Amino acid sequence: MVLLRKKQCIAMLLAGGQGSRLGILTKVMAKPAVPFGGKYRIIDFPLSNCSHSGIDTVGVLTQYQPLELNSYIGSGQPWDLDLNSGGVFVLPPYQKGKSGEWYRGTANAIYQNISFIEQFSPDYVLVLSGDHIYKMDYNKMVRFHARSGADATIAVFDVPLEEASRFGIMSTDGENRITRFEEKPPHPTSTKASMGVYVFTWSVLREYLISDEADPTSKNDFGKNIIPRMLNDGRKMMAYGFEGYWKDVGTIESLWEANMDLLKNPPAFDLYDDGWRIYARNPIQPPHFIADTARVSDSMITEGCDVAGEVSRSILFAGVRVERGAVIRDSVIMPGAVIRSGASVIRAIVGEDSVVSAGCTVGAEAREGEDNLIALVGQHTELPENFVVNPGDQVDSDMLRLERSLNV
Amino acid sequence: MKDVMGLIYTSKNETSLRELTASRAVAALPVAGRYRMIDFMISNMVNSGIRNVGVIMQKNYHSLMDHLGSGKEWDLHTRNDGLFILPPFLTRDNVGSYRGILDALHSNLTYLRRSTQEYVILTNSHTVLNTTFDDLLDFHEQSRADITLVYAHKDPEEVDETITLSPRHVYLSVNGDGVLTDMEIGPTEPKSHNFYMDIMLLRRDLLLRLIDQAFAEGITDINRELLQRNVHGGPLRICGFEYAGYNHRVETINSYYSLNMDLLRPECRRALFGVHPVYTKVHDEVPARYMDGARAVNSLVADGCVIEGTVENSVLFRGVHVGKGAVIRNSILMQGDAIESGVEIEHVILDKHVTVLSGSRLIAPKLYPIVVGKNKTV
Question: Across chain B, how many H-helices and E-strands are there?
Fold first, then answer.
C-alpha cells in the first residue's frame, strides 16, 4: 500500500464556470484562464495565495473550455505545486461505472470528488473560486476556523451598502457568528459580502454534500443550498473578515477597472510586493523595446513588447506590438496583440493575438453623462482596416465572418 | 540530433572584463536585459534536439551553478541525460584547476565515456548567437571530416583591437572543399578573415582518443598542439564550416558594451530573439511600470523596472528603478540597480544592485565606459 501524507487542509478551486458575463473573452477559455495585470491569469491569484499560505494540495475543478487552463496549470511548477506529496490536480468530470455526468453545481462538483479529497484525509477543506483578484493568507483563515471550532467559515469583505445587493450578504452576531445569509438581497441589512472563500470541516461538509446530492430539488450550489441548510441546522458558521483589495472580475467593466486599479499611484492593488509575489507561467521573452518614436507614460509594459506608438494609462501584456503612430489610452492589450499604425484604442480591451489594423478606432474617450462602456475585441481577431468598435460593443472573428457573409 | 551531446567549456576569469567578472565566470555574465551569456549556447543545443549537455566549470562558478540549477528551464532536468554540471575536483592526479580544455576534458573522462551519443559539440561560453546545429552536423557528415570547426567571417575592424594579439583569436584558411589549409593563432595580420568561433564538432570516440593521446604526450593547448599540428600535416581531416548569422564574442568591456547596444537595433534583436527561443532562469517579476512623466526611447527594458525619469539608448535589466528627473543615456544597468532622483548617467555599466545617490553625475566617453561593481553605492 502506498501511504499518502495526511494533509491538514487542502484546497478545491472551482474553475469550471464559463463566466458568461465576460462575453466573447470566455468563448474559448474558462474565466480563470483570462489574462490579468500584464502577465498573469486570474487563476494565478488563488494559486499563488495557496502557495504562500502553505496549502500544497489543490484540486482544480474544470469543465468549461478547459484546454487553455489545463496547459497553463501543467505540472503546477510556477506555483511550487509540482510535489511528490500533494501538488496541483486538474479534476474534470469523469465517467463512473454506468453513470457519469457534468458538474451540476458548485456543491455537486465537490461531491463528485469526495474520493479525491479522502485520499488526503484532510481536517479542513478550503473552497475557492477562480474569479477574484486578491492576496489572502488562507492559513490565517484556517487557523481562525480551527480555533473557533466552527463547521464552516466564510471570508467576508465589507462592501458599500448600495452595492451589497450584488453579493451574498452575511449578518453576524457580536462574535462574528453568522446569523443570516442572503444571496443578492434586494434590501441588504448588512455590508459583509461573501468572497467566495470557504473553509469547511471536512467531516461535516462531507455529510452535507451527500444529503444535498440525495435531494432532487437542490440546485447543488454552495450559496443557494449548502450554506442555508447548514445555517438552518444551527451549525456553527463564522464570518472571517478580510481587509485589503478584493475584486470580482466577472464582467468586462470590472475586469477593465481591476486592471486600471494597478495603475493608480499608489496602486490600489500592489503586485510589486516582494513578500507575496504572484506567480505565473510565462514563456520567456526578451525585455520589451521602446523605440525612438514611442511615447509611454503611466503604463505597465511586459517583456516581449515592441512599442513605437503612444501608450498612456494602459497595460500591455507580453509580446504586444504597438506600431508607430498608433495610440493606446486607458486600455488593456492582451498577449501577442498588434496595434497597427494609425489605429486608436481608447477605453478598451483587446484580446490575445488580435490585430487592430491601420485606421481602426476601438472605443472612445469617456464623456460626461454617458455610460462610457468598454469596447472589446475578442481573441485571435483581425479587424479590417478603418473598422470601428464603439464603446460597449464586442467584436470577434466569428462576428466579422458573419457580417462579411451577410454583406455578400 | 539525439546522437549529439553538448559540452560547454567555461573559461577562467576574464581580467579584461574588469569588475564584471570579479566574482563570476563570463558564462554567467548578465546580458541583454535578462539573460546570462551561457543561456544562448545551452538554448542552441536544446533547440537542436541535444538532450545531454555538460558544462565544465572552473573558478567562480557559484553564480553559474545557481543560474543553471537542475536545468529545468532548458528541459534538461530529465531522468536520462540532461544537464551535467562539471566543476573541477581534487583527486590524486587532479589539482582542481585546469591547464586548458584538454586537461579539463581529461578530468571529465568518466562523464564523456558514460555518455552514449555518437558526436560531441564542444564550445566555449563567451559567444552569443542563436542557431541550431543541424546544418553543422550535415556538413560534417557530408565532408567526411574528422573534426569540423565553425568560423564566422569578421572584418578586421569588427574584432576588438585591444586584444587582437590574444592567442585566443584564431583564423582559419579553408580550401574549396572546406578543408582547413591553415590555422593562425593570434596573428597581427591574418591571411583570412575566417574567425574561429570556438565551436567544434567531432565523434565522441575520436575525442576520447585525442584526450588520451594528449594526456600521454603532455599536450595541453588544443589549438596550437593538436589542431594546428594536424592542419600542418597530421592524419586528421579538419574542415571549416561558416556560420553566417549574427554572433558576438564578449571578451572585453567594449565588446560587452557593444553586444548590449547591438540589441537596440531591430535586425540584431531579430537575429538573437526572433529565430529560436532563448531560455533562461525564470524570476517572477511584475511588468515594468512607467510613471507619469517618464520618458523612454530606444531602450530595452526588462520586467520589474520602475521608470520615473528619462531613459535613452540603454539596456535596463530586471527591477531597475530610475528616479524622478534622472537621465540615463547609452548605459547598461543590471538587475536591481537604483538610480535616485536627479542622477545623470552616460556610457556607464552598473553591475547588479548598485545604488547611485541623488544628484550624482557619471559621464564617461563611449570608448571607455565606467564600470561599477556589484552592490556598490556611488
Answer: 9, 30
